[in-house]
């Protein structure tokens, strides 16, 4: 039986890579040979090569919605990347391409289209990022995580699949987490996640109310690179990390409630794990507003409590955390009615359906 080959793409942030990795075990189980096209020095290269997946670097310019002098030169990089990607397609002859977005994906999707190779793309936010907007006309199908996103996808190409969740996140141990954190009592565990870079405003709000919060909760604080507070290193009931990788499944398993930014990958992981959560989306001043829409959708469906960035004060944050804890069973019950775990199967079924025969 012929093994099928898939080329994956996506880059610019870890959020454009981890959903790809979530699909890898199922694709390998079905006998797919997996290769990856990304940028020469983006975060995706280190992650993918660390998984022993064959990696092809190409040139790519950043796609911007604002004026920058590089807007005059970066299109030339995209064109160069298109020719590089097309050469890879001609040599490797994949049966299908899966794109997670990010600026590197545009030349890859165009190259696949020109080589008559089917493309399945995935958009995690309600409103597509610029890369997926440009690439969508050349895709066979576009998977979306939110039902509202179907309005943004033309020609009936949109399919609601949810967000693929890495299987290892379901394998965490509460006992292991308590060993990692050194917690000795049975107080409920509050996990704070500020995104990959951390959040200054969330960090400050949590720490300003720390004395009151640790009376009721054990606190795990993932605060971002260079955001550790050394004066709190030995604080009983409080442990802080700049960044976690292998420990994350254990910390999530132990968490009774979570305070998080509202990136699509993070919130769908919380939904799949049934973790009562308070979302504090990035403000429109600091982003294109996608996290606000993500949080609004989860709040509307009853999966999350939401506190807007502009309304964040230490007092309000403490009040919301206590409210979330008191209502946690209500949120878990609603999340139990979702089908978040089926995303991998739904996406892989599309790959199987549309790949070249």
Strand portion, in percent? Answer: 15-25%
CATH superfamily heading of the largest domain? Glycogen Phosphorylase B
Average predicted confidence as pLDDT: 90
> Which sheet architecture does the biggest sheet show?
7 strands, parallel
Give the helices and strands as they follow along the chain: EHEHEHEHEHEEHEHHEEHEHEHEHHH
Shape: elongated
How many structural domains? 2
What would your notes on this structure say?
The structure is a single chain. With 357 residues, this protein is α/β, with parallel strands linked by helices. The chain folds into 2 domains: 5-160, Rossmann fold; 171-340, Glycogen Phosphorylase B (Rossmann fold, 3-Layer(aba) Sandwich). The chain is built from 14 helices and 13 strands. The protein has a 7-stranded parallel sheet with strand order 3-2-1-4-5-6-7, sandwiched between helices. Strand 2 (33-39), helix 2 (43-50) and strand 3 form a beta-alpha-beta unit. The protein is elongated, with a radius of gyration of 21 Å. The mean pLDDT is 90.
Lay out the secondary structure.
Elements (H helix, E strand, L loop, with lengths): L4 E5 L8 H12 L3 E7 L3 H8 L3 E5 L15 H19 L3 E4 L5 H10 L4 E5 L6 H6 L5 E4 L13 E3 L13 H8 L7 E5 L6 H9 L1 H4 L4 E5 L15 E4 L6 H7 L2 E4 L3 H9 L4 E3 L10 H11 L4 E2 L7 H13 L1 H9 L6 H12 L3
Parallel strand pairs: 1-2, 1-4, 2-3, 4-5, 5-6, 6-7, 8-9, 8-11, 9-10, 11-12, 12-13
Helix pairs in contact: 1-14, 3-4, 6-9, 7-12
């Amino acid at each position: 039986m012929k093994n099928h080959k898939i080329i994956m793409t996506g880059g610019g942030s870890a959020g454009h890579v981890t959903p790809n990795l979530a699909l890898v075990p199922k694709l390998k189980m079905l006998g797919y040979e997996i290769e990856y096209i990304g940028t020469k020095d983006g975060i995706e290269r280190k992650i993918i090569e660390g998984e022993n997946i064959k990696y092809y670097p190409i040139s790519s310019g950043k796609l911007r919605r604002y004026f920058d002098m590089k807007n005059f030169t970066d299109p030339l990089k995209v064109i160069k990347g298109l020719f590089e990607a097309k050469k890879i397609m001609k040599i490797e002859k994949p049966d299908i391409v899966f794109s997670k977005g990010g600026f590197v994906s545009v030349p890859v999707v165009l190259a696949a289209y020109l080589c008559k190779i089917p493309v399945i793309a995935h958009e995690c936010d309600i409103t597509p990022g610029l890369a997926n907007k440009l690439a969508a006309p050349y895709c066979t199908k576009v998977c979306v995580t939110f039902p509202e996103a179907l309005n943004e996808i033309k020609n009936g190409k949109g399919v609601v699949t949810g967000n693929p969740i890495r299987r290892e996140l379901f394998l965490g141990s509460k006992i292991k987490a308590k060993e990692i954190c050194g917690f000795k009592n049975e107080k409920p565990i509050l996990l704070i996640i500020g995104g990959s870079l951390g959040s200054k405003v969330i960090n400050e709000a949590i720490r300003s109310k720390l004395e009151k919060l640790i009376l009721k909760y054990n606190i795990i604080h993932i605060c971002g690179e260079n955001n550790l507070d050394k004066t709190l290193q030995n604080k009983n009931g409080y442990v802080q990390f700049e960044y976690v990788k292998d420990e994350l499944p254990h910390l999530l398993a132990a968490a009774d409630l979570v305070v998080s930014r509202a990136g699509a990958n993070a919130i769908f992981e919380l939904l799949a794990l049934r973790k009562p959560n308070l979302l504090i989306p990035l403000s429109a001043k600091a982003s294109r507003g996608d996290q606000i829409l993500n949080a609004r959708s989860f709040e509307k469906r009853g999966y999350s409590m939401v506190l807007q960035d502009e309304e964040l004060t230490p007092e309000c944050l403490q009040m919301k955390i206590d409210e979330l804890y008191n209502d946690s069973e209500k949120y878990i019950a609603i999340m139990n009615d979702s089908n978040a775990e089926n995303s991998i199967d739904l996406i892989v079924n599309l790959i199987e359906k549309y790949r070249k025969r």
